[in-house]
Specification:
Number of strands: 8
Number of helices: 1
CATH topology: Porin
Helix content: under 10%
Shape: elongated
Strand order of the largest sheet: 1-2-3-4-5-6-7-8
Radius of gyration: 18 Å
Largest sheet: 8 strands, antiparallel, barrel
Number of domains: 1
Strand content: over 45%
Order of helices and strands: HEEEEEEEE
Length: about 190
């Protein structure tokens, strides 16, 4: 877990420090977004909603298209008789409406879902790292030029089976979250 958190922080630092891109001859400015959020993991294989704090960093072109790294963590989520800890590390392609007070967005991508836990009572938890996918959307409400409130709904699903762990195969859930976004301009 510690290595994944360090990895996530390093990726966020690299994305946030991007200042130049030379891929096109006529580049316009970019916009960076950092969002801290809190939400609930619910639905799918989750039988009792669990608190899910997280964060995301994205970089968007002036036309609204961009990329995002999203992290979320749910502790002690009930999935039937299972008590699971679920961490998501997702790289997404996304679109955020570039202007206006209300800015809808959509996101889709893939990454790693770390699922820890076992049947209750749990004496020796199992830890798995699986390929996961996610898709969702929401909206940003810009308070001023640097701060917005963000509402977000996303669906997450692993692409692996673990019949030996008696876990739900292809574990899935929805995350509904609310957060605060800070954004800034990145000049070419």
């Amino acid at each position: 877990m510690k290595r994944m958190v360090v990895f996530a922080m390093c990726v966020c630092g690299v994305v946030a420090s991007a200042t130049r891109a030379e891929a096109q001859l006529s580049m316009s400015s970019f916009r960076g977004y950092f969002t801290g959020q809190a939400g609930l993991a619910t639905g799918g294989d989750v039988s009792n909603p669990g608190l899910t704090p997280g964060a995301s960093v994205s970089v968007q072109e002036a036309n609204g298209w961009g990329a995002e790294f999203d992290f979320g963590y749910s502790a002690d989520v009930d999935a039937g008789r299972q008590v699971l800890d679920v961490a998501t590390y997702m790289f997404n392609g996304n679109f955020i409406q570039p202007e206006g007070r209300l800015r809808p967005f959509a996101s889709v991508g893939a990454g790693v879902m770390q699922v820890d836990g076992c049947d209750a009572p749990c004496t020796r938890p199992a830890k798995t790292f699986d390929l996961g996918i996610n898709a969702g959307g929401g909206a940003l409400f810009a308070i001023n030029d640097m701060v917005a409130v963000r509402g977000d709904v996303r669906y997450f699903r692993t692409l692996a089976d673990h019949p030996d762990l008696r876990r739900p195969n292809n574990f899935s859930f929805w995350r509904v979250s609310l957060g605060v976004s800070l954004f800034w301009a990145i000049a070419p």
